[in-house]
């Protein structure tokens, strides 16, 4: 997937850092600026996909940035961060062309959602560019879907055929098996490749905003609708709309979606006229849509409409011969991203990976390798660095509560007796939720002194910093 860059503009270093960590964790590149002039320079230098700006800046304000972008880079969305309760400023920014606003104190989940939607819409608008990059990626890697196992060869053949048709495809398979990647390939190999591929996570849109997200809205149609807004259908016009986690659509929205698909037209909220849209619909879920229909959670008529062709993405354990190929690819990507020398797998680690079943599929493989890359010495991953199921099994099998190592008395300042180490459950790095919880508690115990928290946890500062970013565990 093409890496996207977000420019963060704020004069307060703490807020810049918080936003940076949040965005890095979303897999985005970040560039920062503390004033308007630096921001304008960085816009020209980095051509960001999105800008996020505070309103009050030492040499101007966020609206200066909005206006500049409107004039020189109209396809680059900009979101403004406004002071709590200052609705007027938000409206002014929206009128000037801001994509959206968030008010302080910044609600991070809301911000993440905003960024994701903005980047999707921005990708939709700057389509020609995006597509050619993706084509380039495909050309560089032969195909961006890796795997030579019989199961993958079959899948690739089917993708190729499906790309030539316009039929809706329902893609099913376990979480992390590559459903979105498959949908993207169907799009890229088809006639719609030059138009937008718009992925939407149906489970992530608040129900009250759903209609407006899908179909857009007219200015003034509801409180907060201060400008006309394009919907996902319109953004995907001539291209592909990928409805991920489609089983999570509420029933009321299912009716509207069915109608839009049937009519090939949508009516923005508050609008009087329907607009014709030409969109290919691909959908996916890790749930069983058949069960959802049987349970009355999913409309049968919509199910038939989406499930014209059903495509299964096999779990990684059914294509184990692809594991090492994927592993080498991910390690190369990690080393590039972290600007590190090449990371290798020891022969024993290769054997262990190849034999593991990966219940979390390709995404789990990627996560295991990211973690192992931070833990390994000499850029060589050993079996212990992988922390594969033995840890998980032992941790789940024995819910033993063991104390964490005490902080070293030789490091840190005034540590004796100050860092109270409560008895915490054993560190089980495979169970991400437990790991996150444990790290959070260690940070709280040490009043967010990361050096001390790392000592408490028995990990290096670098390892802890990586996890803080990964889990979004920042003080905000
Ligand atoms: N065959 C593959 N080659 C290269 N990368 C892959 C492959 N399959 C999956 N990936 C990578 O694994 C990660 C998970 O894939 P993806 O998001 O497509 O899975 P998914 O089935 O849609 O997951 P979910 O059910 O959680 O939405 C992505 O980073 C994707 O790029």
Automatic annotation (TrEMBL):
Coiled coil: none annotated. One of its GO terms (molecular function) is sequence-specific DNA binding. Residues 139-148 have a biased composition (Polar residues). It holds the Pfam family Sigma54_activat. InterPro entries: AAA+_ATPase (IPR003593), AAA_lid_NorR (IPR058031), CheY-like_superfamily (IPR011006), Homeodomain-like_sf (IPR009057), HTH_Fis (IPR002197), P-loop_NTPase (IPR027417), Sig_transdc_resp-reg_receiver (IPR001789), Sigma_54_int (IPR002078). Residues 145-374 form the Sigma-54 factor interaction domain. It comes from the Bacteria. Keywords: ATP-binding, DNA-binding, Nucleotide-binding, Phosphoprotein, Transcription, Transcription regulation. The modification 4-aspartylphosphate is found at residue 54. Residues 5-119 form the Response regulatory domain. Residues 122-148 are annotated as: Disordered. GO terms for biological process: phosphorelay signal transduction system; regulation of DNA-templated transcription. This is Sigma-54-dependent Fis family transcriptional regulator. It comes from Thiothrix fructosivorans. The lineage of its organism: Bacteria, Pseudomonadati, Pseudomonadota, Gammaproteobacteria, Thiotrichales.
């Amino acid at each position: 997937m093409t890496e996207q860059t977000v420019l963060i503009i704020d004069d307060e270093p703490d807020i810049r850092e918080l936003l940076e960590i949040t965005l890095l964790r979303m897999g985005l590149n970040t560039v920062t600026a503390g004033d308007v002039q630096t921001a304008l320079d960085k816009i020209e230098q980095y051509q960001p996909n999105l800008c996020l700006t505070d309103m009050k800046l030492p040499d101007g304000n966020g609206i200066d940035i909005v206006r500049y972008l409107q004039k020189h880079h109209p396809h680059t969305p900009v979101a403004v961060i406004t002071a709590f309760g200052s609705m007027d400023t938000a409206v002014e920014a929206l009128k000037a062309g801001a994509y959206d606003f968030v008010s302080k104190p910044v609600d991070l989940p809301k911000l993440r959602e905003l960024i994701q939607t903005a980047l999707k819409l921005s990708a939709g608008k700057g389509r020609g560019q995006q597509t050619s990059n993706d084509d380039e990626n495909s050309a560089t890697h032969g195909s961006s879907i890796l795997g030579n196992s019989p199961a993958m060869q079959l899948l690739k053949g089917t993708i190729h055929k499906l790309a030539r048709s316009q039929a809706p495809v329902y893609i099913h398979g376990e979480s992390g098996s590559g459903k979105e990647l498959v949908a993207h390939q169907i799009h890229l190999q088809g006639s719609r490749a030059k138009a937008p591929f718009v992925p939407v996570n149906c489970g992530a849109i608040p129900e009250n905003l759903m209609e407006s997200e899908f179909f857009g809205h007219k200015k003034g149609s509801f409180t907060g609708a201060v400008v006309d807004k394009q919907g996902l259908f319109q953004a995907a016009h001539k291209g592909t709309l990928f409805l991920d986690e489609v089983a999570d659509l509420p029933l009321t929205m299912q009716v509207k979606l069915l109608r839009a698909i049937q009519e090939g037209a949508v009516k923005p909220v508050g609008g009087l006229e329907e607009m014709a849209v030409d969109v290919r619909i691909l959908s996916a879920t890790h749930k069983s849509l058949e069960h959802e229909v049987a349970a009355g959670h999913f409309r049968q008529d919509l199910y038939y409409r989406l499930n014209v062709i059903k495509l299964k993405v096999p779990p990684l354990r059914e294509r184990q011969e692809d594991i090492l190929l994927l592993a080498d690819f991910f390690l190369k990507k990690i080393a590039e991203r972290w600007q590190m020398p090449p990371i290798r797998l020891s022969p024993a680690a290769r054997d262990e990976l190849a034999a593991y079943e990966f219940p979390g599929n390709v995404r789990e493989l990627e996560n295991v390798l990211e973690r192992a890359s931070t833990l390994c010495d000499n850029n060589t991953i050993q079996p212990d660095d992988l922390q594969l199921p033995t840890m998980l099994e032992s941790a789940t099998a024995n819910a033993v509560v063991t104390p964490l190592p005490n902080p070293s008395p030789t490091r840190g300042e005034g540590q004796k007796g100050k860092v109270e180490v409560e008895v915490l459950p054993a560190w089980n790095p495979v169970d991400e939720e437990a790991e996150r919880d444990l790290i959070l508690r260690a940070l709280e115990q040490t009043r967010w002194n990361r050096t001390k928290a790392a000592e408490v946890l028995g990990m290096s500062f670098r390892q802890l910093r990586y996890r803080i970013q990964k889990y979004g565990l920042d003080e905000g």
